[in-house]
Amino acid sequence: SAPIEGFITNNEIVSSPVHMCTIAKLYYEEQFSSHQFMQSETEIEANNVDIEIEEVLKNKPPIPIQITYQHLRRSVASLKNKNSTSIDGISNRIIKLLPPNHLSIILSCLNNFAVTLQTPSHWHAAKMILLSKTKSKVIAIDETRPISLLPCFSKLFEKCFLIHFRQWINEQGILPAQQTGFRPGHNMAVRIVAIIDQIGKSLEKNTAAAALFVDFRTAFNQLWFNGLWLKLSNLQCPLYLIAWLRHYLKGRKAYINIKSTSSTMFNLSKGVPKCSCIGPGLFIIYHHDILEALSTIHWKHLFADDLAVLFSPSPYMSSSNMINTLTEQIKLVLLRLIKY
Questions:
Q1: Measured CA distances, 304 to 36, 167, 261, 290 (Å)
Q2: Residue 324 in domain
Q3: Tell me: the pLDDT tens digits for 115-141?
Q4: Which of 48, 185, 271, 327 could hold 221 in an S-S bridge, CB 3.0 to 4.6 Å?
Q5: Domain annotation covers residue 265
Q6: CB atoms < 10 A from the CB of 211, how many?
Q7: 3-class DSSP assignment, residue 34
Q8: Which of 259-268, 275-284, 294-303, 329-338 has the lowest mean pLDDT?
Q9: In terms of residue numbers, what domain contains 324?
Q10: DSSP symbols for 178-204
Q11: How crowded is residue 105: how many other Cβ atoms within 10 Å of its Cβ?
């Protein structure tokens, strides 16, 4: 995407890096602000679960995850060979160039972090750069996409944890077959082929087909932590996995960097870091049950936070009835999504 040269605010163009950082910080600080408590039954239940988990972890800490040398080697190999650095000035490329005997030192450190659930403070800080959602270089702040540059050793720790987390998810069969986003062995091509095939079947029957494509705005930014603990608790997630995730999400901060100028730090009280290894996995687990809200619809497809729903009425309907039926079905799905 084009580099951002300025922000449009109050019908004026702001191009000063300092002022741009201030505008961006205020916007994203609000995006990642604490969940607004509305006293709903779900919120009360989630808060109670949060308190219960905290008490259990204090009184009886679980056995931590065990990272093996094979886990570490696999995680290092999966790092993208990039030169970009975060707050610590270390890149993936540097880690991938380390001699094999250095990995044993890293392994010892990571297992110690897993046991104590204590990690360097800068691992919880993200350098946030902004990309334009459009081709324009001068845009409104809500037309930006945040990319979090995280410490590379922190991402390595995430990847090692993700091996354990995915194993639990797969063993329990939690994710629906229709979800193909950020899952090894699944890809978007499968969903696209299925959608085309289903439209083709409707045409073969001489009936209409309609598709509803839903993109949830700032979806990753809105993940509610206590809601996550409630979902994981209901799924009977092992406590050692929850303990790791609570440490990972607690006390996270970020700063905006534009044209080599940085804002002050701000808190990330909800949401998952964009471009983190664990973020997409947490998101799809958090919304693993979204398709249950659409149980009467036959054709559903998910790729992370992108949802597609296909409708096909009876071929024996008149054209006008087909259109009316499709319209009502689309309205029903939207209402169910709002309720969800």
A1: 24, 18, 33, 11
A2: yes
A3: 999 999 999 999 999 999 998 999 999
A4: 271
A5: yes
A6: 16
A7: coil
A8: 294-303
A9: 6-339
A10: TB-TT-TT--HHHHHHHHHHHHHHHHH
A11: 10
